[in-house]
Amino acid sequence: MTNKKILALGATGPSGIVLLRELLHRGHSTIAYVRNPAKIPAELLQNPLLEVVHGQMDDEEKLDSVVCRTSIVLSILAPVATSTPDPAQFQSYFTNLIASMKRHGVKRLVTLNTLSSPDPDDKFSWTASISVFFVRNLINAAYRTVRGIVDVVKKEGQDLDWTIYRVPILSGDASAESWNKDRQSGETYAGPIGGKGWKIFLPRALLASWLVDCAEGKHTEWIKKMPAISLRG
């Protein structure tokens, strides 16, 4: 029986906090590696299953110190739409993360991406196409960042059991009330963009549930694949 923990990255945004709620609800010992611990709600900080480590994206030594104590990495890291991200910074971060995982024999990486990163199995969708058009033209740095993350994971993570999950428009907030309501709001779709049942919306609570399922050994059919995740229509 392993005593290693689940490593959550990007755990201070709304989706990340909802992920922490789901992990702790299911009884998982979790490390949240974050830049701003103050963003995590007090009731979660008080949970003995949660360890919060304050660290920066480019602090390789600090990152290595948490990766070595984990069995899987669940990442919700993504550029913020209201900022101008540096694609090279995110690529460097994932390069360092993957190198650390290899050093410590951590095989499983489940990491966030968006509709801007295509997959050969995708079907045509007007809503997805319009969304990608606006991202590419209005927040091009974010567009280049998420596509760069895919390139790094595929190139550097060939020895890992990675899954790059692509999210549409996310709904719900970080509150316990929203999480508890939305986690029972429907079924989760996983598959190509535009496939039967795919929708342009996804409650954060359903995403969190799907991610924790991955941590519990489910959804292995998506290893080395890029499923689009949504509320099933």
UniProtKB/TrEMBL annotation:
Kindly provide the name given to this protein in its UniProt entry. NAD(P)-binding domain-containing protein
The molecular function GO annotations come to: oxidoreductase activity, acting on the CH-NH group of donors, NAD or NADP as acceptor
- Family per record: Belongs to the avfA family.
Give the organism's phylogenetic lineage.
Eukaryota, Fungi, Dikarya, Ascomycota, Pezizomycotina
Name the PANTHER family for this protein: FLAVIN REDUCTASE (NADPH)
Q: Which residues form the NAD(P)-binding domain?
A: 10-182
Q: Which InterPro entries match?
A: NAD(P)-bd_dom, NAD(P)-bd_dom_sf, Polyketide_Oxido-like
Please report the organism this UniProt entry assigns to the protein.
Answer: Stachybotrys elegans
